[in-house]
Amino acid sequence: MRLLIELGNMLSKWGRYHEALAVYRLALQLFPDRSSRTDCVDHMGAAYLEQAKPDRTIEVLENAKAQIVRQLGPKYAAGCCYNLGMAYRRTGRPADALRQFSEVGDIYPLSGYARLADKARNATLEETGMTVLVRKEEDDPSGSELPS
Questions:
Q1: Residue 88 and residue 107 in contact, taking contact as beta carbons nearer than 8 Å
Q2: pLDDT tens readout for residues 2-56
Q3: Cα 140 to chain center, whole Å?
Q4: Selection from 58, 71, 69, 60 nearest residue 24 by Cα
Q5: In the chain, what is the straight-line distance between the N-terminal and C-terminal CA atoms, in Å?
Q6: Residue 126: CB partners within 8 Å, gap ≥ 6?
């Protein structure tokens, strides 16, 4: 199973997402153990995102997220949340995207995924015009406009 997943990963890195997904599907059919299946589904979600199919990414990763968090550890969980966030962002669901980006930092702070999620979070806030609200809240966390 691991070799098939790695083959799928290589194909994905080369931009051959259709072939990568076919290899991941084959791996799912051949090897029924839960951990390998969860790992494979996680990679499938990423491949769908790269293939510009964010709706399919959401479908795959939402269904697998709890298992990914439980079985694969923080690195994979952070990757799953980041990919879900990007898929939500691409489908016009900024609130869901922001929730996922926040989760990345909670799960695996100081990681590459956390840095990417922070950039994506800031870009999402900028796109939605929410950066003004965030800055105002950071300047005055109590929410009052009156000086103390």
A1: no
A2: 789 899 999 999 999 999 999 999 998 887 688 888 889 999 999 999 999 999 9
A3: 31
A4: 60
A5: 62
A6: none
Flag the least confident range among 51-55, 92-96, 137-141.
137-141
pLDDT > 90: percent of the chain: 70
Structure tokens that stand for 81 in this block: 């949340």
The whole model's pTM is what? Answer: 0.81
Query: What would the two tokens of residue 111 be?
Result: 């990681």
Give me the CATH topology for the region 2-139: 1.25.40
DSSP class per residue in 34-98: HHHHHHHHHHHHHHHHHTT-HHHHHHHHHHHHHHHHHHH-HHHHHHHHHHHHHHHHHTT-HHHHH
Q: Which SS3 state, helix, strand or coil, does residue 99 take?
A: helix
How many Cβ atoms are within 10 Å of 33's Cβ, its own excluded?
9
